[in-house]
Amino acid sequence: MEFWTLIWKILFIASIVVFAGMAVWVTIGGYQDIKTLLQRLQDQSDARQINQKDEEI
Known about the structure:
With 57 residues, the chain is mostly helical. It has one helix at 2-56. The protein contains one helix and no strands.
């Protein structure tokens, strides 16, 4: 009986470690994606403002 208790404890701890690692991985990836998204939106906004100024001239 002691053997199965040890197996389940190891499995439980391993799954928590894997989940924590994946949570960190997804958080970092999501941050980078949002940063890229906001930079692209800023670039598009800047390009539109330049085009509007060129059309006024």
